[in-house]
Amino acid sequence: MTDTTTDNDTGTRTTARRLPGADRARAHTEPPPPRRPAQPALIDVLADPNPDPDTDPATAADVDGVSWERFAEPASADVLAAGGWEPPPPPEPPAEWGKRAAVLRVLSFGLAKPRPGREELAYRRDLRAIRQATWPRSVRVAVANPKGGSGKTPTAVLLGGVLAGIRGGSVAIWDASDAAGTLGARTEGTAARCVSDIAADPQAYALPSTVGMVAATQTSFADVLGSLREREFAGPDITAVLDVLDATYRVSVADSGNVPHSAAFQALIERADILVVPTTLTADSVNKAVALLRRLQSAPSGLAQRAVVAVLHTHGPQTPGLSGQLEKIFAAVGVGAVVHIPFDPHIAAGTALSVGSLSHDSLVAWTRLAATTVANLTLD
After folding, report:
1. What predicted TM-score, i.e. pTM, was given to this entire model?
2. Which of 198, 192, 227, 220 is nearest to 211 (CA)?
């Protein structure tokens, strides 16, 4: 390629050879022509350079197809709750009960995750109900049936033990009978002092650290305050002990006596928040329970209407045909619920009771009793 130039003075024409790439080199060395400034779009001119986020989205300018509505603050949890929104329940863990679940896990090398059955799901619901229950003050549970041998002491120990084990302690089980009862003989360990010391000098046990000297702590984390010597409780004694327990524990479970007209029994019933009535499958035990519930029908606290009946199945004497009529009998009295507790050799042995020694079916039933008690509990 050649370039031809002409000298204006001499008129001489000169031809020069142009090397390849010369145009490209010159293009890189010469500055580009200046550009005209871009004209702003009409939407840029009209739009507010600092738009107000509080502007109604329906009237705000839409820039590049994106409105301010996209950048609005998300609704708070309170707003969502007010609109009926509820968070989804957490996923249910795989089944832990049953041979089928164990076999599936073994054969699948742990990969199979079978769903829990109805009984296991019900047990898990009971656990959650007990664990998540909240109250504005301490709760007082009274275990009562005027019939001796109806299972009051085992019911108090195991009901309180299940509540303490699931809730992580802060449960007191105490001997509230008018005369010294057998609570200490059916529990683990022996404390250096007893409930009579609290009744004699309640001011000396105003702090949790001092109450601990009277309690025998169980493997379930419940504290048992039994009787170590003969004594007689009156109404003021029951009130003094309850005031001390209310200041230290979230739940107190009282093992009552067999004299419903005693001042101690009446004071306990007046202060109780929920009544649990144990009975065996004998006519005299059921009749005594029904008589107590009928007498409490007119009580302003509504104890009888919210009472929970625990039917203890034993291998002892039973009244023929009574088992099938219990639901009808207690429904006529208007109780809150009836829970059946299956036979357990650990309870029948008559030795110290431990929640950890219960059979599987028995533990499930006692947990159901505890959850039912919590469900029927209403504080004013």
Report:
1. 0.75
2. 198
